[in-house]
Amino acid sequence: MSPIDEEQLQGLKGLRNFLRVRTSYDVLPLSFRLIILDNDLLIKKSLDILIQNGIVSAPLWDSQQSRFAGLLTATDYINLIQYYCQFPEHIDDVEKFRLSSLRDIEKAIGVLPLETVSVHPSRPLYEACSRMLKSRARRIPLVDIDHETERETVVSVITQYRILKFIAVNTEQHTMLLKQTVREIGLGTYSNLATAKMTDSVLEVINLMVVHNISAVPIVDKNNVVLNVFEAVDVIPCIKGGAYDELKSTVGEALTKRPEDFQGIYTCQEDDRLDSIFVTLRQSRVHRLVVIDDNWHLKGIISLSDILKYVLFTGVTSDEAELSAPP
Ligand code: ATP
User: Fold this and answer.
1) Domain range spanning residue 306?
2) Which ipTM score applies to this complex?
3) How many A from CA of 302 to the centre of ligand 1?
């Protein structure tokens, strides 16, 4: 890794200042829809709703107490699958579980519940980013208080993806200064990479994601050439309609169930500069970058959290640290 150069530092400071003066509200489009699911809904039904609406997560609402009850994500379905594997004799319960049972499922399989952090939409975007990174959440609900009822209301959910897109689209004057390469700044993970083969079962890949606490596994051939990436969200169509047996099918078969508008995977090389990665983020729907060599051999993986962490925490000067201290 090389030391950070002056121009790069200026670029990063510019991005951090931008995140301090913008709020989460700024990231939201002028008009958007928000699908909130009632906690009493059957988990089975929630899958259909996500698929029908082309979404992969939704806030949950406790209508008895009229309050926000957490965020439903692909991880919850992965937990359900683990439950099914650990207690196959309870398959009838699996069919009857409601979204409100998700916390009991976590307890039964012994995973720690994800912290349900939320942020007020008028707080600086910097705060939403650092909360997300600290809690390892990939998305964060924007929760406000309705002045008439004094009750919580979910305004929207912002993701790492949306924030990086917002940065990439609005701060070209800063991102163009980020000329150090992926190799120079050590961006991403390059050792102990979790990979799988096309012939591995979906269950094996899910297990890898759980053990490594990651949301994507590159699929390689016997020569370590990258063929595809299996993502946590690819699990959703696999268990549609309670077809848990399909989890025993191969990754290759599961990947054929992707939506028709799936845009493919994105790659980069270690000699690519960070400014060019921001150009890719600006132009495409990137959720992670697979780092390859000239012959498509797998070298590493750069997740959105790797990029966001680099932007937020690299080369922070003491005067900047004061600005970022929580109120
Ligand atoms: P997302 O990519 O879903 O937005 P994220 O940015 O938190 O979420 P993860 O895929 O969960 O990404 O990655 C978390 C950390 O693990 C990152 O530092 C990333 O470089 C690393 N990582 C990601 N995939 C793998 C993998 N297959 N093997 C080893 N490490 C990985």
Assistant:
1) 181-314
2) 0.91
3) 7
